[in-house]
Design brief:
The protein is α+β, with helices and mostly antiparallel strands. The chain has one domain. It is built from five helices and eight strands. The strands form two sheets. It has a six-stranded mixed sheet, sandwiched between helices. 26% of the residues are buried.
Length: 254
């Protein structure tokens, strides 16, 4: 069954569901675009890796000298330089690896990146090194000859800029390199259906069409989100009137 909401499902905006949803949304978006772009293009899932060193309280040992093995070796073998335990033990900091995925549409003939499709993550909307890295990559795209499609399906957080965006719950932005600094912008309200956006290709080829609502519904259905997301609340919480409206779409939990 597709998502019961007419547009974005706010219950997907949870830490327990978002990363899985983001990955599956991009997989389904890739499938939809492959049916649109034709034989001259490739649609590839790419990733950026962010490494986060954990705090002192969160660190853990990645390894230590095996004293038991060394003791057994001393009983059965002559002591040699090769079997002596290291005189010093050091601690490697624990590192959390975060994988941020996005889509690239490439010209099949020369592999040039024609368009990049981004679905914003919490990290790209939270001040810090990850957001700075995303803004840097975004700036490189906007300064070059690659089209950018940026989709935000999360309320809250600090949205990338430029440009200054009007208030809205969600949005889609399309920046064609030949039209910059002008961009196409779709403000989306919680109660509205997600739009069909035009994804630019290389001239003179016509745009591809990406039905965001159709992609969301396929991702929702394929991953079984309806079996568990309604036991929690959207993050950030909905305003009282929006929460009352959303409650009318919740499936029966019996």
């Amino acid at each position: 069954m597709p998502s019961p909401f007419p547009g974005m499902n706010p219950f997907l905006e949870q830490a327990d569901a978002w990363e899985d949803f983001q990955q599956d949304f991009l997989v389904r978006a890739r499938e939809a675009l492959m049916a649109e772009v034709g034989k001259n293009y490739l649609v590839k899932i790419e990733a950026r890796l962010y490494l986060h060193e954990l705090s002192a309280e969160e660190r853990r040992f990645f390894g230590r000298a095996d004293v038991a093995v060394a003791s057994r070796a001393e009983k059965h073998e002559p002591s040699t330089a090769a079997s002596v335990a290291a005189p010093v033990q050091l601690v490697l900091p624990a590192v959390d690896v975060e994988r941020q995925t996005f889509l690239e549409i490439r010209d099949r003939r020369n592999r040039r990146v024609v368009s990049v499709v981004e679905l914003l993550s919490p990290a790209s909307k939270t001040p810090g090194a990850d957001r700075d890295a995303y803004l840097g990559k975004r700036g490189e795209i906007l300064a070059g000859q690659t089209h950018l499609v940026e989709i935000d399906l999360r309320r809250g957080g600090k949205r990338p800029h430029p440009p200054d965006l009007p208030p809205c719950d969600y949005y889609a932005l399309v920046s064609r390199y030949e039209d910059r600094p002008k961009v196409g912008f779709w403000p989306i309200a919680l109660r509205e259906r997600l739009p069909v956006v035009r994804v630019p290709l290389a001239a003179p080829d016509p745009d591809a069409h990406l039905d965001l609502q159709g992609v969301l519904d396929r991702a929702y259905d394929a991953a079984g989100f309806g079996t568990y997301i309604y036991s929690e609340t959207p993050e950030p919480p909905l305003a009282p009137d929006e929460a009352a409206w959303a409650a009318t779409f919740l499936p029966n939990r019996d």
